[in-house]
Write a structure and sequence with these properties.
The protein is of the alpha+beta class and about 180 residues long. The protein is built from two helices and ten strands; from the N terminus they run αββββββββββα. It has a five-stranded mixed β-sheet with strand order 3-2-1-5-8. The chain has a five-stranded mixed β-sheet with strand order 4-10-9-6-7, with helices on one face. The radius of gyration is 19 Å and the shape is globular.
Length: about 180
């Protein structure tokens, strides 16, 4: 009877980080990391693996208005002393997202989003590495991570989302002059 109550409560407790201040999707691919931040609206844009290209590394659907302000970057920038939730996934093979100085890691499995959460406690510049042998370029699969003061993060995030929105907004063609 006790286990009947314990398992659902435990699953609910460990499946989400309550009230995360920053949410990021970490996308692994041979042999790089891409990080997706939701824009100012706080919503991630829909992705489709068939839309992946060199200009669209995670396949954000250009028809989804939630994705217009999403930020895609190769550097993970986080605010200090804030609750962070990272959903880890892979585009190709099994990888492992590892932040060595924080002693945390999570497998990245194609087709699955696996959450990990933590709270950085000091400013830091470090690397994120792949902790799973994933191919011959495995040793070069390194990303950057910066933990910065909150005001510096806010400024960076505002600049990034404005740039993403400007680059991704549909271009309106000038109205054609009436002929007469």
């Amino acid at each position: 009877l006790l286990l009947g109550f314990a398992f659902p409560l435990w699953a609910n407790r460990v499946d989400q980080f309550p009230n995360a201040d920053v949410r990021v999707n970490a996308w692994a691919e041979q042999f790089a990391w891409n990080f997706q931040y939701p824009g100012a609206d706080g919503k991630f844009g829909a992705t489709d693996r068939f839309l992946i290209s060199s200009q669209n590394p995670i396949g954000i659907d250009p028809e989804d208005p939630n994705g217009l302000d999403d930020v895609i970057t190769g550097t993970l920038v986080l605010p200090n002393r804030k609750q962070i939730e990272i959903n880890v996934t892979s585009k190709d093979v099994i990888h492992n997202y590892c932040i060595v100085p924080m002693r945390i890691q999570q497998d990245a499995i194609p087709g699955r989003e696996i959450p990990m959460w933590f709270t950085p406690v000091k400013a830091l510049e470090t690397y994120v590495v792949c902790g799973q042998l994933c191919g011959e370029g495995h040793g070069n699969m390194v990303g950057s991570m910066e933990v910065v003061p909150k005001d510096q993060y806010d400024s960076w995030f505002k600049t990034q989302t404005e740039s993403a929105l400007k680059a991704n907004s549909p271009k309106v063609a000038p109205a054609e002059a009436p002929r007469g």
